[in-house]
Every structure is written in structure tokens, then in C-alpha cells.
Amino acid sequence: MIDLKILRDDPERVRVSQRARGEDPGLVDALLAADAIRRSAIVEADSLRSEQKSLGKQVGKASGDEKTALLARGKELAEQVKAAVAKQAEADEQAKAAHLAISNIIESAPAGGEDDYVVLEHVGEPRALDNPKDHLELGESLGLLDMERGAKVSGSRFYFLTGQGALLQLGLLNMAAAKAVASGFSLMIPPVLVRPEVMGGTGFLGAHADEVYHLDKDDDLYLVGTSEVPLAGYHMNEILDLSDGPKRYAGWSTCFRREAGSYGKDTRGIIRVHQFDKIEGFIYCRPEEAEAEHQKLLNWEKDMLGAIEVPYRVIDVAGGDLGSSAARKFDCEAWVPTQNTYRELTSTSNCTTFQARRLSIRYRDEQGKPQVAATLNGTLATTRWIVAILENHQQPDGTVRLPAELAKFVGTDVLAPA
Fold first, then answer.
1. pLDDT tens by residue, 172-199
2. Which Gene Ontology cellular component annotation is one that this UniProt entry carries (predicted)?
3. 208 annotated to bind ligand
């Protein structure tokens, strides 16, 4: 949720953010109105309760007709207080719904939609490859993955990683885990099923709720699409000790996405699938530290990409392409030779206080007063990276050379037919 103080002090800033996202600026005025009604209802209920309390003291001192009149007034007040409390509860619910409807306030992101990103830098030069094979052809010829049996067992966009393919993913994720721990992250293996309040608190039950797998009936649990979700819920309803600096976690989890609305897109291979593994960096910090932590996350992602030695570019994602929780997002996109373009491998978002406000995650400032924390997240490695590794490091003889740092974790320098 956005900070209501910002809304009250500068509602136009929130309207501008809504327009930049391509969302309804009228929601700002709806929230302002609901907030005013809620505050008025609080004042009314408090005033009646105060009068009721004062009247109670008078009844104890009164007698005769005066006491009878006071008791009659007390009965009237009791009904009025009951009605005012109900009115306040209804106003609270309406204000909360209006509050939840507004996405995070954009901070410095470019204007526009999906195609209006700004390229911040290019790293590395694509190799000249004669008739390159795509990752699926390479993976099948080397015995690394099996899409056909994945579809037989689970349906379209599922797969088996087999033999050295499984070792490649484990090596990649182990390398990411080792780098994360060396950089001060605490490694976590979180649950992949979460309660609705956690999924909703991180902002995934809004416009993109149809991307999320839900276990209904008596379970009412959601399968996570990123360990950002359980890591955000880890400190839900807590006051953190950030006196020694930010808390940094790296979550290793299997992730699940329905990919609703993406039919016909990237159906070949493992670029866009329903299940994959990922290591996600997640940070809790003071709001004034968030921008610097965002740059650190981006640098950790770049270090990982450097270790797999693929050409990539960094983009500043436009406001209209941000998720509801993100105030700003940087993507790192690797070169995919057979597509002759760059494709996203990592994403890092500064969510400012948006998620923590929903999940009631706070810290104490220098005066000991609770304040809302900031949260950030960023991809440190995922299954999709295998696409870039295979295509960029393929050799004319059909084998794939692994970069030296990655090879140490996989246990071989070259992926070759078994």
C-alpha cells in the first residue's frame, strides 16, 4: 500500500504515477474520499464514546429524576455508539479496499509501456555463429532435457531436465547460492505454498492474479511464482532490528506460473514454462537505504551474469510495465543467438514501503519509534539461464563449452552427448 501521508499531501504525484502505469487516476480521488469518510467516522465514534464515558460518571452521582433522565440518555447513546462503531467498521473496509486498489508510486522509471524501456548499458559482444542451434535442439541432442515426456506426464510447457541438464541447473544454482552467501545473504529454502494474506500482501493478487496457481477447497493456499513471496512473508507482523544494516536473504525454490494470456508466446523449449527453479535475493532495509540496495542487487546480478559469460544488456523498465508493487525495476537481458535479440534473465525491483505496509513489517528508528521498512527483490539465477548458456557457448561440433567458474560447480568443462 502507498503511504497515505503522500496521498494527502500530494495527491497529484499519485495521479501522475497512475497515469504512467496506464492505470486509473480516478482511484486516487476514490481513496481520498474514502479516507475522509473513514476519518470522519472515527471522530464521530470517538466523540460518542467520550460522551458515553462522561455520562457514566454523572449517573453514579445523580439521583431521582436527574438519574432517570441520564439513564435514558445513556440508552440512546449506547445505540448511537453501536451504530457509529458499525459505520466506522464499514468505512474502514471501504477505505482499505480503495487503498489496496492503488499500485506503488513510480520512482524515476521511464514513461510508457512494455516497449518504452531505456537501455542503460551493454556488456559483452555477441559471438559470430554460423547456423546456430537453438537451446531445445542442443538440449535434446546432448540429452539435457526432454520436452516430449514432460508434456506426456504433465501437459504442455512442462519438461524433464535429464543427466547433465539436471547437473547444469544444480551447478548454476549452487554457484548463485555460493555467491549470495559470500555477499552476506542468508540462504533460505522457503515453503512454496503460502496463505492468501501473504500472496496478496506482496501484490500478486491484483491484475496478474490469473498467473497464480491456487489450491482451493479447504486448503486456500497459493503456489508461489517466486520465493520473493514467502521471503516477504517471513517477517510479516514483526518489528525488525535493522540497527546493524539491511537483512538480506537468498531463497532457493521451485516456482510455478500459469502463464495465462501468453498462449502462442515462447512455446518452444524452456523460455516460458509452468515450473522452474530460481534463487531470489530479497532485502529488508530502511527506506532511505532502498535506492542504494537496489543498485547493489543489480550489481550482484551482473556478477552472476559475468560468471556465465553471456552478452547482456541492462534496461530501466518503463512505468507501464512495472508490477503493482515495484516503484522501479531493472532487467538484465541476455543475447539469444537464434532469436537475434535479448531476453530477460534477471529482474530486480525496489518495492519501497509498499509490501511492508501491507504485511505490517516495521523497524525502530533512532528514537525507538516503529517505522515501515522497505523491501527489494532480484533474480540471482533461474532455469531460463540454461537457454542463454547453451546457445551462446555452443561449439561447431554440437557440444557446449561451459565457462570456467560455472564448470567447477557442474563438474565438467564441456557438455557432450552421453
1. 999 999 999 999 999 999 999 999 999 9
2. cytoplasm
3. no
